[in-house]
Amino acid sequence: MNESCRYYLSFVVPLLTSCAVPGGSRSSSEGTWERLCQVAVKAAEYDSPRRQPHPKCLEGTRVNLLNNIYQLLDNRKMSQLIWLHGMAGVGKSAVAFTVAERMRGLTVTEQTKTETRLAGTFFFSRKHANRSVTGYFFATLAYQLACNFPSVREDLNRTIRENPPLLDPDKSLREQMEGLFLKPLRKLHLRLRECPPSTFVIDGLDECACKTDLKDLIFLLNQALRKPDLPVIHILLTSR
After folding, report:
1. In the chain, what is the straight-line distance between the N-terminal and C-terminal CA atoms, in Å?
2. pLDDT for 123-136, tens place per residue?
């Protein structure tokens, strides 16, 4: 079947208009990090054992589609929200997994083997309570971002110590995005200025139970990519 009949790939240059505990000791930092580790949804990561068997594009399949996505992800000029949508069962999750796997295999510089271009992933699922809501979304991405870029970990710990409710899934998405997502990325702005763009892969938006929360999340992500003080990043979304 012709790929163009099965998928619709679009990218959005951000233009949408709608849609404490004080102290900085080592022990308190470790305690804060442990709290984040507990809140982050490990099963939402693209390669989580909970999601096996992992869907993946077989070698030689969806070549044109994947190459188009990779070309967009290599764009260093501006951040992009890339949206892959199509009917249920056409393999969108397999594409998302394959893209995430490729980005995980690419490092941001030749000097490092640990800091990869895959900044974070979240695979929604209506079958699992903490993967069918947006309340754990930014905490999960923040955890992965700090694992990939350890230099932001202490600043992230400080932010959480100063505002512990950020880890509450009922906290406002806007506040969570600012504290857990934008602040760490700002820390990386100069560090990644000359590097290939980092990528976030978000799969199964239609699996989110609350469509209002989902609309808010997409709007916030789109607004985030407008920020001039962030490194160039790309976000791949998939949905029906």
Report:
1. 18
2. 999 999 999 999 99
- The token pair at 21 is 């505990």
Q: What is residue 51's predicted lDDT score, i.e. its pLDDT? A: 87
Helix 92-104, helix 63-73: angle, nearest 10: 50
Please state, in angstroms and rounded to a whole number, the distance separating the CA atoms of residues 63 and 67. 6
Q: Which candidate, 146, 150, 65, places its Cα nearest to that of 99?
A: 65
- Structure tokens that stand for 62 in this block: 């969806």
Which pLDDT score, from 0 to 100, does residue 10 have? Answer: 59
With beta carbons less than 8 A apart as the criterion, state whether 62 and 95 touch. Answer: yes
* Alpha helical stretches, state H, the chain: 26-39, 63-73, 92-104, 137-148, 153-162, 173-176, 183-187, 211-224
Residue whose token pair is 């920020």: 227
Q: For the chain, which residues score pLDDT lower than 70?
A: 1-29
Task: Name the maximum alpha-carbon separation found in the chain.
Answer: 60
Nearest to 119 by CA among 24, 211, 208, 235: 235
Q: Is there a contact between 72 and 82 (Cβ–Cβ < 8 Å)? A: yes
